[in-house]
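REVIEWER CHECKLIST
Item 1: Sequence provided? yes
Item 2: Single chain? yes
Item 3: Sequence as submitted:
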Amino acid sequence: MTTATVGAPGSAKRYLHSLWLLSGRDLKVRYSTSALGYLWSVLDPLVMSAIYWFVFTQVFSRSVGEQPYIVFLIAALLPWVWFNSSVSDFTRAFNRDARLVRSTAIPRSIWVNRIVLSKGIEFVFSLPVLVAFAVFGGATVGWNLLFFPLAVLLQAVLLVGIGLLIAPLCVLYTDLERTTTLILRALFYASPVIYGVRDLPGVFSQLAAFNPLAGIFSLYRVGFFPDQWHTPSIVIGAVMSVGFLVVGIITFRSLERPMLKEL
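Item 4: Structure as written out by the authors:
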């Protein structure tokens, strides 16, 4: 997840050690100041899932997704929480620790990577919710569940790329923080969280494939719902994830110096 060229194994080891320490600090701060601690990693997506499940199964007649719908929903909602919380934190990644960012000798990409890692750990902590509903909801598990780690990897790559792009821009252009919040709200409904890519008609299904989250969410779901495999969105999602990483690295390297001056 690094963006700087590491000249020696020792440098890589120091970077990874620092990344782990910073990510651990984030988790300790989050959990030590909360009475419920770890349970928040479970309660937040659980409450969101319960609300959408109730609305789309008890209030309205649902024509999207698959049964059990709660498993279909949670399989995408949990990674969405990882994505949403990470991107939100990217907007404040450098301003929050401005003094330390200016003085550190560690590649400054670490302030992006630590968010991806810490939020990713929280995502892993929330997976028992998915497991519990899959077991008690009677979901069928197939060999396609092997694609789950690939989905995690692609999402991490996508997030690092987006973070390296957004984080320095938010330092230079402060209005981008609020703009990002608005975009995330719209992106939730434009992403196949409460529905699947295959539920979209005609051209909308083709357009949805260019949202990298569509392919990633499909990979999360295929272990429980094989029919959710959608080759165009998965291939495009993988290519776009790598593309965002490349663009993010290039952008970060060009904006790092002006960003430090602004800090």
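Item 5: Key structural point noted by reviewer: Residues 231-262 form the longest helix (32 residues).
Item 6: Recommendation: ____
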